[in-house]
């Protein structure tokens, strides 16, 4: 754990190296100090059709799914770090967001 799911406008792949985006999220997640590197799982999914308000600007939405039990301050540090990494990498290319989600313990072993 965690599972980091990066959803992005497919057009971004024409401007940016998506593998580097994945690496940035990986490094920010590791830098949080909450996880061993071997436990971090990241995947990126391109959406060929997306819309961002009236602007048409590309978007990146990252969801970080965690086992329950992290303190609010830990989740805030993780989310802030991942968002900063996204914003630094993306610049003005896309809007970005991060959501931290606690998984239900009933559905994993």
Question: How is this structure best described in words?
Answer:
The protein has 109 residues and is of the alpha/beta class. It has a 4-stranded mixed sheet with strand order 2-1-3-4, covered by helices on one side. The model has no long low-confidence stretch (mean pLDDT 94).
Biggest sheet: strands, sense, closure? 4 strands, mixed
Q: Secondary-structure element order, as H and E?
A: EHEEHE
Question: Which runs of at least 5 residues are low in confidence (pLDDT < 50)?
Answer: none
Radius of gyration: 14 Å
What's the β-strand tally?
4
Q: Helix coverage percent of residues?
A: 25-40%
Sheet-strand content, in percent, reads: 25-35%
Classification by helices and strands:
alpha/beta
Task: Count every helix, treating DSSP H or I runs of 4 or more residues as helices.
Answer: 2
Shape: globular
Give the strand line-up of the largest sheet.
Answer: 2-1-3-4
In whole angstroms, how far apart are the ends? 11 Å
Mean pLDDT figure: 94
């Amino acid at each position: 754990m965690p599972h980091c799911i990066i959803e992005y406008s497919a057009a971004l792949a024409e401007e940016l190296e998506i593998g580097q985006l994945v690496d940035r999220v990986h490094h920010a997640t590791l830098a949080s100090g909450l996880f061993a590197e071997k436990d971090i799982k990241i995947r990126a999914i391109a959406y060929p059709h997306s819309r961002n308000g009236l602007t048409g600007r590309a978007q990146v939405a990252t969801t970080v799914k965690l086992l329950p039990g992290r303190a609010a301050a830990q989740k805030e540090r993780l989310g802030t770090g991942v968002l900063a990494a996204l914003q630094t990498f993306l610049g003005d290319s896309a809007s970005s967001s991060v959501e931290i989600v606690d998984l239900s313990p009933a559905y994993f072993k």
